[in-house]
Design goal:
Protein name: Sushi domain containing 2
CATH topology of the largest domain: Protein Transport Mog1p, Chain A
Radius of gyration: 38 Å
Subcellular location: Membrane
CATH superfamily of the largest domain: Mog1/PsbP, alpha/beta/alpha sandwich
Number of domains: 6
GO cellular component, one term: membrane
CATH class of the largest domain: Alpha Beta
Main location: membrane
Number of helices: 17
Keywords: Disulfide bond, Membrane, Signal, Sushi, Transmembrane, Transmembrane helix
Number of strands: 39
Length: 861
């Protein structure tokens, strides 16, 4: 249509308009969340950079709440968008699980979360027509036990629920919940059962939640329900593990993925068969024996789980590999129901390599391990890791519920409902700490000061982004960003502070922890997107776990066992990195080479080593060489300031030259209070920061951080263990500490005598002093002595016979002058009579030797 001249301008306009429409359509965030275009962005950083595409909020969804139980049923709303009530709103999780959503009277869209068998961030998409899923977001699926009690059903008397039907436990059961979390006036109360079926550790091993029956139908949603339990039908009473669910009564019985609240998993004692109520101990023993047979047929996971830390101090300090067990937490009052005698337990964060098994370690008030060999409250390993193990979904890796299936319900069978713990502890014995090796710690603190893994200390006040730790073999990288500090009047000081730390291991999510401006709080980013800890303190991510109990504390844990602790206080960030022994000789960066050789800690990125006594200027130059590149940077640049100062600028700012030392001027009014404050270990760092920043608060914060690091190193000092000692049969022992210097004493029951060592001490080499201890019954001793007496009498008779025989032979020899024989110990050749007499003599000696040996054996026994 463009061949006539008078239409050329119109034709060009149409073409340009079509291009504009095409470009506009291409720059929509529909199905494009996380992408960046030339003129706008659908990336999470677009809000702070103010370059979001116009429809960013419409297609890249914010939700509230953003987390809930992996059992599903949470109703979350879509923020910053409104919808027509007539639309067909559906939600799709993990690209496969569909749930029915709705639009409320205010035009707000809602989704219902599905029942999942995994924890962590779950991607979801939303459709307004049931066909095109062009809007997306993410949902945090949470281990049910880690969920706040406000968001689940609570049993009014948990002990009554778990022991119902055992002697003297009966009556009505009561449960409570928050009614507003169920969008209905009337509800049903349902029982669901959990099981795992198929051949263990095979492809057909599956986890299953199944609706069993309704306990209360169409009851008021007032947050309280009580009932008198009845024995269930046989097909249902076979289920002994399950959860209660409250859901709208308008939904069909057992409807999946509807608005609901769930209780935690529990032993369904209250509906078990009549045989359980008649003889709960006998019923449980049969179950325990069956479990014992099943365990014997399954692979042994005990050989691959990590050993426990030797002391409570080690267990609490080794944050890269162990974390508090919420069922026995010293910070929460030590309510250790399943571990009487313990005050604190920890769990290994990572599952075992092949079977995904878990480890638990418990400690008493003295800081010593509590072992099952000494107490029913001892720590126990788990076939199913309580927190699950990636990739989750299948047995025995389902968070929480696999653990209940293989490790908890069997504890009820063998220990709580019957007194047969010997079966349970045969398969779940406590691990001691003989092979435990504590991690090594390095730190960055103050403005900033560095303490390497081998203990070298130095100060580096450069401005830029640097490699703090890198391990090519483990594909582990920790990077630090420093920025100039400011005096109280706002002017820039010639000193810097650590302001951000970014890290990754292998193909894990990238975690960045930042110091917020003006406040002592930390901000956490995952793959350049801000993480909120307002609802959950622990978040499972891809290849990494993050824990933030409060805004000033963040701990990051990687599969290698590396732990990164970040703390905010005094206007600065303090960093501690904990490395397991496996990384020995596999590290480089500003925190040095971890190899017990401090002399090589100042090794540059090109392998050149400078002396430890180098000048401050030479150390500054060395540190500048560890600046990273944009190509290897893990940091987020989501502001104009960060782009200009760090992304487009040199990674090490050569124009920023700090003060390499501070002068202690006697005329300085700050000097005397500084010297009074800065004493003992860490005094030099404290003085440097107080005087350079003109702030006692700054100096004190540095001093406290240094002392905290010193305490961590002390807690992680190696401890020698000799291993558990059993009491002798028919006796007992005093002492349950098995570390170097500890002594265990042994005694025997009445009617028994002790043989071996009565007292044994753990020695420096990891061996016990003395000999094995035995208790021998007095009647056994009498039998032994009687036997010895009989043997002695027989020996005397034999000797008499020998003497008499020899006497007779001597008389015969006198009558023979042509031959002389000697029969003392050896037989020479001679005539038959003399040879026979020698043989008799030799045989007699052998008999004597035999009886003497028998006597010795009997005495030893």
């Amino acid at each position: 249509m463009c061949k006539y001249n008078n239409k050329i301008h119109l034709c060009m306009f149409i073409v340009l308009l079509l291009q504009l429409f095409s470009r506009t359509a291409a720059q929509s965030c529909a199905r494009s969340c996380g992408e960046k275009f030339n003129t706008c962005s659908c990336h999470a950083t677009c809000e702070s950079l103010k370059d979001c595409c116009a429809d960013y909020k419409l297609f890249c969804l914010d939700i509230e709440p953003h987390s809930g139980s992996l059992l599903g049923g949470t109703d979350f709303k879509i923020l910053n968008a409104t919808f027509e009530q007539s639309i067909n709103l559906t939600c799709r999780f993990n690209s496969e699980i569909l749930t029915e959503g709705y639009v409320d009277e205010n035009g707000v869209g809602h989704c219902i979360t599905p029942l999942l068998y995994e924890s962590g961030w779950i991607p979801f998409e939303m459709s307004t027509d049931g066909v095109n899923y062009d809007r997306s977001g993410r949902w945090l699926s949470v281990h049910h036990s880690k969920l706040s009690p406000f968001y689940k059903i609570i049993f009014a008397n948990a002990t009554q629920w778990q022991y119902y039907g055992t002697p003297n436990v009966s009556g009505d059961l009561k449960m409570i919940w928050i009614p507003s979390l169920i969008k209905a006036e009337r509800v049903n109360i349902e029982l669901w059962g959990y099981n795992e079926t198929g051949e263990a550790y095979s492809a057909n091993w599956e986890a299953e939640w199944k609706y069993l029956y309704t306990v209360g139908r169409d009851v008021p949603n007032n947050g309280v329900f009580s009932f008198t339990p009845q024995i269930a039908e046989h097909s249902y009473s076979l289920w002994d593990l399950g959860s209660m669910r409250v859901s709208p009564s308008t939904k069909p019985d057992g409807a999946r993925d509807v608005n609901a609240l769930w209780s935690g998993a529990h032993a369904i004692a209250w509906h078990l068969e009549e045989a359980f109520r008649k003889d709960s101990a006998g019923w449980a023993l049969e179950k325990c024996i069956n479990w014992d047979k099943e365990e014997k047929a399954m692979p042994n996971f005990l050989t691959e789980i990590t050993d426990c830390p030797c002391t409570l101090a080690q267990a609490r300090a080794d944050t890269g590999r162990f974390h508090t067990d919420y069922g026995c937490d010293i910070e929460a009052g030590s309510l250790c129901i399943y571990h009487p005698g313990a005050v604190h337990c920890v769990r290994a964060i990572q599952g075992s390599p092949e079977y995904g098994a878990g480890q638990q370690c418990c400690y008493d008030s003295t800081g010593a391990q509590v072992l099952t060999g000494d107490s029913i409250g001892g720590s126990t390993p788990d076939r199913g890791h309580d927190w699950g193990e990636p990739p989750y979904k299948k047995p025995p890796r389902v968070p929480g519920f696999s653990h209940w299936k293989y490790d908890v319900i069997s504890f009820y069978y063998c220990c709580l409902w019957s007194d047969n713990c010997k079966y349970y502890f045969t398969h779940r014995p406590s691990s001691d700490c003989r092979t435990y090796r504590p991690p090594r710690a390095a730190a960055v603190l103050g403005d900033p000061h560095f303490i390497t893994f081998d203990g070298v200390t130095f100060t580096f006040n450069g401005k830029g982004e640097y490699s703090l730790l890198h391990s090519s073999d483990y594909e582990l990288s920790v990077q630090g960003r420093t920025e100039p500090m400011k005096f109280e009047n706002g002017t820039v000081a010639m000193a810097t502070r650590l302001s951000s730390v970014a890290m990754r291991e292998k193909d894990s999510d990238v975690i960045e922890v930042r110091l917020r401006d003006q406040v002592d709080e930390l901000q956490v980013l995952m793959n350049q997107q801000v993480l909120s800890f307002s609802e959950q303190k622990w978040i499972d991510l891809k290849g990494v776990f993050v824990f933030s109990p409060k805004p000033t504390d963040v701990t990051v844990m990687f599969p290698s066992g590396t732990g990164v602790e970040v703390r905010a206080g005094g206007g600065v960030m303090t960093l501690t990195i904990l490395l397991p022994h496996d990384l020995q000789n596999h590290t480089q960066g500003l925190l040095g080479t971890m190899n017990d050789e401090p002399e090589d800690d100042f090794t540059s990125s090109n392998g050149v080593i400078i002396p430890l006594n180098s000048s401050a200027q030479d150390i500054f130059t060395y540190c500048a060489g560890w600046a990273i590149r944009n190509e290897t940077s893990l940091f987020t640049y989501d502001s104009t300031h960060l782009l200009n100062e760090y992304y487009y600028a040199p990674k090490h700012d050569p124009s920023f030259i700090p003060n390499f030392s501070v002068t202690e001027d006697p005329e300085d009014p700050l000097l005397e209070p500084t010297l009074n404050l800065c004493a003992g270990e860490g005094a030099s760092f404290c003085k440097y920061d107080a005087l350079s920043m003109r702030s006692l608060e700054q100096g004190n914060a540095t001093l406290l951080a240094y002392r905290s690091h010193t305490s961590t190193k002390k807690a992680l000092e190696p401890v020698q263990s000799c291993g558990w000692l059993s009491p002798p049969n028919h006796g007992w022992k005093e002492g349950t500490l098995y570390l170097e210097g500890a002594t265990v004493t042994f005694s025997c029951n009445s009617g028994y005598r002790l043989y071996g060592s009565q007292e044994r001490t753990c020695q420096a080499g990891g061996k016990w002093s003395g000999q094995d201890t035995h208790c021998v019954a007095d009647n056994t001793l009498a039998i032994v002595l009687g036997s010895v007496g009989a043997v002695l009498a027989l020996v005397v008779m034999v000797i008499a016979i020998v003497v008499y025989t020899k006497k007779q032979k001597k008389e015969a020899m006198k009558q023979q002058d042509d031959k002389i024989f000697s029969c003392v110990g050896l037989c020479w050749e001679g005539d038959a009579m003399e040879q026979d007499s020698c043989e008799v003599s030799q045989t007699s000696n052998e008999m004597i030797t035999f009886f003497v040996k028998a006597f010795n054996v009997l005495v030893f026994i």
